[in-house]
Amino acid sequence: MVSKLFLTEPDVDRLTDILGNQIEWSGFHPNCILAILRGGLPIAERIAKRFDLPLHTIRISCYDGEVKRAEPIIEIGDLSVLKNKRVLIIDDLIDSGLSVALAKDLLDKQKIAYKVGVLFQKPEASVVADYHSEETTRWVVFPWEPQDH
């Protein structure tokens, strides 16, 4: 059984600051944020506020609690609002990499420039974020999730 890492709001604030600093120091200047719902939204809101950027969302759900879905749920809005933008894709973490890979594929098909930022990167993931606060092998439980999770 994988050990769990239970985060507090101050933990998320600290990790989001680390992520924001990496983005700022990299020289990448996004002009909008694309949050992967649901886990990416609280982080994306903090990053959007820090950089004073508009926030857009996409829902890609590969898990139902701790159980991986046979087929991911994908709900896409109007991607034309991202045309000619430098998009920062934000998610809470990259576990298998499937959610972020699907988002990247959607933007690639529209020829939209992007970078990816997450709080946690799993080393065994098929996708590597451009920016991540920490690497972990643990199951991460965020403060907005049920704590008996």
Q: Would you kindly provide a written description of the structure presented here, covering whatever features stand out?
A:
It is a single chain. The protein is an alpha/beta fold. The protein has a single domain, classed as Rossmann fold (3-Layer(aba) Sandwich). It is built from three helices and eight strands. The chain has helices at residues 9-26, 40-51, 98-109; strands at residues 4-6, 32-37, 55-64, 67-75, 86-94, 113-121, 131-135, 139-141. The strands form two sheets. The protein has a six-stranded mixed β-sheet, sandwiched between helices. Helix 1 (9-26) crosses helix 2 (40-51). The longest helix has 18 residues, at 9-26. The two termini are 13 Å apart.
Short account of what is shown:
This protein has three helices and eight strands; from the N terminus they run βαβαβββαβββ.
Helix content class: 25-40%
* CATH class (first level) name: Alpha Beta
Reported by name, the CATH topology is Rossmann fold
What's the arrangement of strands in the largest beta sheet?
Answer: 4-3-2-5-6-7
Number of separate helices: 3
| Structural class computed from helices and strand pairing | alpha/beta
**Which architecture name does CATH use?**
3-Layer(aba) Sandwich
The radius of gyration over CA amounts to 14 Å
Poorly predicted runs = none
* Proportion of residues in extended strands: 35-45%
| H-E string | EHEHEEEHEEE
Q: So what's the overall shape?
A: globular
The tally of domains stands at: 1
For the secondary structure, the number of strands is 8
Q: For this entry, what is the oligomeric state of its chains? A: single chain
Q: What is the average per-residue confidence, as pLDDT, rounded to a whole number?
A: 89
